[in-house]
Design goal:
With 43 residues, this protein is mainly α. It is built from two helices and no strands.
Length: 43
Amino acid sequence: MDRGLVTLIGMSIAYVASFAGLAFAYWGWKRHLRSGAGEEDAR
């Protein structure tokens, strides 16, 4: 396989993994806020 294509595929996988991590962090943060656990953290 051409080195440029391998780099493109690797960078695409890294981009998707980064976006998925951001989405999971946002989902966990929203769930944390809904549970009311964020109120004691604010003090």
